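Cross-posted from the bioinformatics board.
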Amino acid sequence: MAEDHAHSHNHAHGSELSEMQLRVRALETILTEKGYVDPAALDQIVENFETRTGPHIGARVIARAWLDPEFKRRLLADATEAVNALADFDPIANHMIAVENTPQVHNLVVCTLCSCFPWSVLGLPPVWYKSAPYRSRAVIDPRGVLAEFGVSLPPQTQIRIWDSTAEDRFIVVPMRPAGTDGWSEDELARLVTRDSMVGTGLAKSPGDVAR
Amino acid sequence: MTNSIHDMGGMHGFGPVVAEPNEPPFHEAWEGRVLAMTRGTGYTGLWTLDGFRASMEGLPPVTYLSSSYYERWFRGLERLVVAHGLVGEDEIAAGRSLRPGVRLNRKLTLDDVKAARAPTFERPAPASARFKPGDQVRTRIINPVTHTRLPRYARGKLGTVEAVRGCHVFPDSAAIGAGDNPQWLYTVVFTARELWGEEADPTVTSSIEAFEPYLMPL
């Protein structure tokens, strides 16, 4: 295998990024010259992740669920179908599952094995989600992890962890903050953070945002 | 590889979770190129998503831990293109193409990317599901040297089937080129005490998405 004799010097000095830039560029050149990839297709993939997908999609879904009980029912029954029915975004993959936070239960999503994340509604996972501290501790010390995100739940609140070990993808429906009666979907969406849809955060309070 | 460093659930010693405010999708331009190359070459169908995961899981543990996320992708991708005969080790070393490419069955085009088709891993079921919601099950104790999605912390544990998620491509087969081998998939819930012992927080439960071959009836 093309492995570590070629790589082992990488971490011995401080030019790791430029080293990676060179190696990645070389591999793309090889793949392109041999006719395996189309650089224009690769450009479009990068552009999609930089400009099209992101937590704004999930936030819109959550705001709609807060406003529309029928949409929320459909979302919790079949999140893929419900999100695709909005038709505002690129179609999302099957197997999206929405789980609802309540005063009794707080949901927390992790992928202990790597980085499974609902890309189509939350964008690419942040570095912390893919990091060893989160992957190792979310399942054994969820309250400790939540504390590091500034989230302190009542001791009697049940915590439910979802380890994304297959192609099912989870999005948390956070609780709607108090004091938001009469808010529009756009206004509510601004309260929905990425972390609140992973379970490492709560939705923002009205006082946190300019309405 | 299964019992390797990627299977991190329950490990100690990695320190606190540190979140970066306003994190960009990619920190360096090369990270996006690695993701895109992985998508592009994966489209050839020469390997599966689980084959890609297995390639990263096969990195030496020290390499895995000392590499950033997209460095792991890059190393995993390099291993795959060489292992499947798309690129020679000599070409990797030279940093350029030394001979024409082999013929591919499929090549990802710009139109494919723009069409944004969503993949599915669900497959027709060869048999009816063995378990139903509410069933008590015990996860098997397995230690395959090839890819699996049953984490170590959840092996040999008593759990409850909460949901049947359909019949899906079985990663343990797909990763080694043994076909889809569709299997029923379940959400199986465990108490934290079952997973971590009597000292564990009684308010915590935890689920995995478990394929039927991982489960035994009680």
